[in-house]
Amino acid sequence: MTTPATRPGHGPSRRTVLSAGIAVGGGLLVGVPLAAPVLSKSGPVDFAPNAFIRIARNGTVTLTMPYVEMGQGTYTSVPMLIAEELEVPLAAVTLEHAPADDMLYRNPIMGAQETDGSLSMRAAWEPMRRAGATARTMLIAAAAAEWRVDAAECRAAEGFVVHDRTRRRIAYGDLAERAATLPIPPQVTLKDAAAFTLIGRPQKRLDSADKINGTAIFGMDVRLPGMKIAAVMASPVLGGRIASLDDREARRVTGVRSVVRLDDAVAVVADHWAAAKKALDTMVVTWDDGPNAGFSTARLKGELDAASQRDGVVGDEAGDEAGAFASAARRAEAVYRLPLLAHAAMEPLNCTVHLHGGRCDVWVGTQAASRAQAAAAAAAGLQQDRVTIHNQYLGGSFGRRAETDNIVQAVSIARRLDHPVKVVWSREEDTQHDFYRPAYHNTLRAGLDRDGRVTSWFHRIVGPSPLARWLPPAVQNGLDPDAVTSATGPYQFPNRHVDYVRHEEHAFRSGFWRGVGTTHNVFVVESFIDELAAASGVDPLEFRRRHLRDDPRLRAVLDLAAEKSAWGEPLPPGSGRGISLLQDFGGTILAQIAEVSVHDGGSLRVGRVTSVVDCGKLVNPDTVIAQIQGGVIFGLSAALYGQITFSEGRVEQGNFDSYAAVRMDEAPRVAVHLIESGEAPFGVGESGTSGIAPAVANAVYAATGNRVRNLPITSDR
Question: Side-chain half-sphere of 553: how many Cα atoms within 13 Å?
């Protein structure tokens, strides 16, 4: 994905750096420019700041949050940046969801108002700290003017400005309005890392208390006067339509208010969910399945296999791969396949809509508020400024709540009603109408010299391009950069060729899934690296060490992983250790070592996972640990159970009985060890998910001698 361009030779004006003024109701308002200036044909255009910090007259510090909270800890880590530079306790910062506005709140890396790609901390690191430092500097200047002293004699501490010589002090709230009238300092000094009191130290999550006591409001919790609940049933085949509908029994269910028929779905609107779902289950619907009626997983596999015979668009190339492979002392080839995956977020999809007075209000948990606003406006037949998105906490997402299909459906239903309606998808509806992580076909070959060093590397990736749908300009000359990311791993091969064959299938929709390119390529690369290590007779960890790129951070992570996992120590018969190593998400390095025991019949248990992560600067270490632990469980669920299959155009999985997740009694012990490096944080939300599958697959090989090239890791494999 691309970063918004800036034109060389045009430095930012002061308005593109920061702005400040008096907040509504009084107090200090500081604007944070999160994005680069928008360009026009005439040159850079100043824009309003993207996010706001308000310091009220009562001293309250409020951050209008441009990113959403879906379990990753953003609502704690980003306020830490403000609190650190502003010199206030973390608990003093309160949050508001940002409204939908691409110009004000767009992610500077994505170019749109989105929370995804493990980008939030990377995007917030410098702007949020600078905003806090600017507010601090202006408050100190206001106090110095009040006391008629040199500002250099004053400092900020715990929400006060203190005059060191006389020990006088004034609370921020008493200074806020005067500070708002002062000029914005052209430059401010950020705190040195050695002076940090919050950043780098474990902090309790600000949102935990409300989530524990049940007062946090997720999309599912929204309640409005006069609101009804709708249960929906959409065509089980993508592109299908309703041929006939018998809703007589449904209308007889107590509590049912109406039945809404759309072209491709039917909704029952009732006083509560139980009545709506009960009535929906009595529906007699005949579907016209349309052109995708005969689609199956077997057909998809055949199409991917056939597409793999075509030459792809080159994503990475060096040397003479074909010549080096032909002359290699030893050669290896393999095909790896990965299945479609659903998101299966804990909170099923839901959306509440109220159309009234020429306006549309939408209450929903979304990763992309401005995209949701545009989709709702189109569905409602309104101008975008007539639609308000009320964003909520997200009960998990992993990319699913970046889409807008359920919002469009909810607005379409609400247009036929004269009251607010909350549209809720059942777990089955959610699973069977997802934007799936694509299935991929991977062809690999490598040459080795007599000393067991890789002399050539070939990797062909075949699959669809979610990025082409989301951000078409990012796909240039047919190359999806996300599809080929991590396609050679963190290794240096003198002769290499990576290419991409785009194959789109219109019988289902594909989307982002907690890191698309990395989630499939790390499995493929790290599994094939293990194959090459075995072919060379070299220990898998040592084999990786020999081929690392020249980066001391990689070696440090690998060495610590070996130490903490007791790599090389003997394990009981039927057990094995497997390793994976990745570098992605802006520079994050993660090594994972899984201990697996395989029992009679092929059942396996992952008993322990050792994770070592270097994600640059640590903001909240507890959040990093939690993200890796949660990512391991999410990724392990996919590795052991995850696959979406089709028959006659229909998804065969429904609830967690057929699309399973790792349960508490199956969860391994996950030990996370942190290495801090660099001056800025890298992304960490998707790393743990990406690295666990190959670590487990390689452990299965160590335990049994059987190589896993297809996921999920079932007993027959």
Answer: 18
